[in-house]
Amino acid sequence: MLESPALTALAGEIAASCGRLDILVNNAGITRVVPHADLDGLDDATIDAIFSTNVRGAFACVRAFRHLLAANSGVVINLSSIAGNTAVGSNIAYCASKAAMDNMTRSLARALAPAIRVLSIAPGWVEGEYASRADPAYLQAQIDRTPLGRIARPDDVAKAVLAACTLLNFTTGAIIPVDGGRPLG
What we know:
This protein is of the alpha/beta class. The chain has one domain (5-179): Rossmann fold. It has helices at residues 5-17, 44-70, 83-86, 92-112, 129-132, 136-144, 154-166, and strands at residues 23-26, 75-79, 117-123, 175-178. A four-stranded parallel sheet has the order 1-2-3-4, sandwiched between helices. The chain is globular.
């Protein structure tokens, strides 16, 4: 995945049609529930797939599109998770991949400045397909421990991305939580 002909081709198409790219949102991510204590259940193939998608995929996109982003002081938004900081998530590899993404965000912010800003948006639980598969009692316990009394809605995450791109013009290398204060509960 480090060298991607598809990404190279897409960058060429964008360059030909638009000449630049203003915003890159790295939103691809995968996981599978494996209890943290089940070290044998977290097999190598799952670990590799999680890191390949969640970290290497985002890096490959930044590398492929960086020249288009630099043409107009673009911004990269990496969709992370509070699991990268709290180490509470679907499995150990997922938590580690999101910590790696946050660290990569800071490293890229330093490496690509001043031409490109790089930020992470780190949601907690978000309403949607993944949350709908969670045990309702477990999900309610998470809501009960969240100071703002609910889990994020997709538009909460979208508004954070929009704010990071349009309002936080002097911010780079930051990890912005969208979690209703969940780690405080």
